[in-house]
Amino acid sequence: MIPLLKRLGLNKYSVDQKSHIEVNTDICLTCKNKPCTVSCPAGTYEAQPDGRIIAHYERCLECGGALVICPFGAIKFRFPEGGISYNYG
Amino acid sequence: MSFDADVIIVGGGLSGLSAGITAIKEGLNVILLERGEYSGAKNVSGGRMYIHALQKLIPDALERAPLERPITKETYEFYCKNKKLTFSFEEKDKKNSYSVLRAKFDRWLASEAESLGLLISYSTLVTNAYRENGGITLETNRGTLRAPLAIDASGVTSVVFRYLGLRNFTPDKWMLGVKEIIKTNVNLPESEGEARTIVGLISGVKGGGFVYTNKDTLSVGMAVTFDSLPKSEVPAKDLVESFREKLGIEGEVLEYSAHAIPYYGFKNLQQLYADNLIAVGDSAGFLINDGFTIRGMDLAIASGMIAGLAAKKIVEMRDFTKTSIYYDMLKESFVLKHLELAYSRFELINKGTTLNIYTEVLCDLLSDMFTVTEDRKTLIEYALLRLKEKGISLTQAIRDMISAVK
């Protein structure tokens, strides 16, 4: 299996200075299953030992999944300026 | 207050460009906003287009468009644990659908649109939208634009509808599409291509996978509902890799991409129009899965063309609350007719458990028939036995069969 970061590296990114994803990590503390960590195709969401989520926004494939992934509305997502470009589509 | 254009189209994919081309031909003053550096930089598709709508938009498209291969072979593969059921259908010289790579295709379509005079503003991201003085104001990273009519062609996330509070998304009505492009030697004549549909290879998820043959690459991917992802045997980030490895497809990976796919079905479609606003393509939720065909691109092109024609009528009437004209035209077109026609089968397929269970019943039934021992029953006896094992009554099976052929 090709590692995720190598696969993501095939695309062209122009990452904004500010994250286009905001996570209310207090809500994450109460979330047991953390569907964001298994549902994101870019591994953007990573659970910390204390249960909070950090977002690796620079990996984001802009699939839009953040708008439906979190059942508690803890993730705020807007499209970034720049962001990802695909070569082949 | 003055407006910047008759119509502003948000999104430079297939539906937006088709709307733009049509509206320009109708003589409207149009601006199209595309957030990518070029059309096709942002969008992801499985990679197969039924071309009837494209041929209406651009009659000589088959000679000029950067299409990959005509799909002349359909293969279905159903996996049920240690059993596999597969069948293929070939039709040489068929030119009804083609594999496409959207970064190439959309760029070409955008150049066609620009040569007709469509103004496309690239790298332009809509950051907010609101109603003001009888029109819609769009805030973008390049300034504010106003128009009495906006066409939302921004894809499944419907940015204009969303900013106006007109969308409600749920994980069971969206699928995650994940795809890789694999460099490979395709041992087929240029006039042939294959589409493989693969179900049951990754357990837990609701959905399936595909492999489309391009000129010298393969598009390999999966589409599964977001709500089923937590039950998947592999996390989403490994879905397509795991799928590809199980299929034994090897080659250099050229691209890894993902996108949400609308999966509403005719009866669950969201609002398609509002005052001053029209939704087309994925933004309208136009996707058909009837078990035989999975279509979005032809619906995107056709709905875009209809939106362009409707825009002309609305502008002429000078009443921008009359966007229901678009809906009336859609109802008369194949777009809504086909969506409605596909609904019973769409619903049956969408009942993920039904699909999986029937596949298992069929696999077990075939296994029964291919196994010879002293104890031998009739086919109908085996069928009833296998259905009973899965807790399906004969009445239910017949009802589902009728839905499947409707």
Compact overview of the structure:
Chain A has helices at 4-8, 25-30, 35-39, 66-69, and strands at residues 12-14, 21-23, 45-47, 53-55, 75-77, 83-85. With 89 residues, chain A is α+β, with helices and mostly antiparallel strands.
Question: Structural class, judged by helices and strands of chain A?
Answer: alpha+beta
The first-to-last residue Cα distance of chain A is: 22 Å
Q: Which term fits the overall shape of chain B?
A: globular
Point out poorly predicted stretches of chain A. none
Biggest sheet of chain B: strands, sense, closure?
A: 7 strands, mixed
**Protein structure class of chain B:** alpha/beta
What's the total helix number of chain B?
Answer: 14
Instruction: Please give the oligomerization state of what you see.
Output: heterodimer
Strand order of the largest sheet of chain B: 5-4-13-14-15-12-16
Q: Evaluate the radius of gyration of chain A.
A: 13 Å
Helix content of chain A: 10-25%
Mean pLDDT metric of chain B = 95
Shape of chain A: globular
Q: What percentage of residues of chain B falls in helices of 4 or more residues? A: 25-40%
How many beta-strand segments of chain B?
Answer: 20
Strand content of chain B: 25-35%
User: Measured on Cα atoms, how large is the radius of gyration of chain B?
Assistant: 23 Å
Structure description:
Chain A has a two-stranded antiparallel ribbon with strand order 1-6. Chain A has a two-stranded antiparallel ribbon with strand order 2-5. The mean pLDDT of chain A is 95. Helix content of chain A is 22%, strand content 20%. Chain A is of the alpha+beta class. With 406 residues, chain B is α/β, with parallel strands linked by helices. Chain B is globular. The interface between A and B is large, with 37 and 54 residues.
